[in-house]
Design a protein that fits this description.
Elements lengths: L7 H23 L6 H10 L3 H8 L1 H12 L3 H23 L2
Helix pairs in contact: 1-3, 1-4, 1-5, 3-5, 4-5
Keywords: Membrane, Transmembrane, Transmembrane helix
């Protein structure tokens, strides 16, 4: 059976969207203040902790990557790796942007 989700762009989009959803879920589950998510992200940037949030939010990409490998969707796995590398670059920039 031919899977239409075995495309590099699909993996790339999944790799970009899943960390955003996971960081929002972390925000909803752990933060009980009156700030919105955008104000929370700005505050995290000012406190120099946004890099930590981004690096934790990318962890679900690892699970999705392994599922893509196990189901032989190698092009999608490649896209997930590329998106994760972009998040890695953003994290490094956020850590050294002081």
């Amino acid at each position: 059976m031919i899977c239409k989700c075995n495309k590099q762009i699909v993996g790339f989009l999944i790799g970009l969207v899943v960390p955003l959803i996971f960081s929002f879920l972390l925000f909803k589950g752990r933060y009980h203040g009156d700030l919105g998510f955008d104000d929370f992200a700005i505050t995290m940037f000012k406190l120099q902790s946004l890099g930590k949030l981004v690096s934790v939010s990318v962890l679900p990409n690892l699970l999705i990557f392994f599922v893509a490998i196990w189901t032989e969707r190698l092009l999608a796995a490649r896209g997930i790796v590329i998106a994760t590398l972009l998040y890695t670059l953003a994290t490094v920039v956020l850590y050294f942007l002081r």
